[in-house]
Amino acid sequence: MFRERVREIFGPDADVYVRGPVENPDEFGKRPRPQVLWIRLSAGERDYWVAFPRGRIERDPTSALLAWTIAGLGIAALATFFIVWRLNRPLADLARAADRLGGGAESTTWKRKWGPPKCAP
User: Which of 10, 46, 48, 94 is most buried (most C-beta within 10 Å)?
Assistant: First the structure.
């Protein structure tokens, strides 16, 4: 199915080969070769080979999706906490002031900003 799709896109001369991994490193201690997907593309009278490491093609998107979901939920939770904290602080101050005024205390803001009332009997 993949080969047919490549031939649809790049023409009937395109071909696909897979080089398997070499398990035994050579005598110089190099790392084993990874699997590579080779695609032969014909351009005029010449053939060109394009190589793609299989690790770049066959990635499992589940782990990336899970990581991004957790990160998004974490950012949303932090943003929600910050917004609620910023909204509840002034509302809590207002509730405390209303409780003080309801208990018979005088408004300290009135005296501080405008002074005592001028209309005394």
Answer: 10
What residues in the chain have per-residue pLDDT under 70? 20-34, 54-59, 107-121
H-helix or E-strand spanning residue 38: strand 36-43
Q: How far is 40 from 15, CA to CA, in rounded Å?
A: 5
User: pTM for the whole thing?
Assistant: 0.40
Report the alpha-carbon distance of residue 53 to residue 31 in Å, rounded: 15
pLDDT score for 28: 53
The pLDDT assigned to 74 comes to 97
Q: What is the DSSP string of 50-98?
A: EEEEHHHHS--HHHHHHHHHHHHHHHHHHHHHHHHHHHHHHHHHHHHHH
Q: List the structure tokens of 46.
A: 């010449």
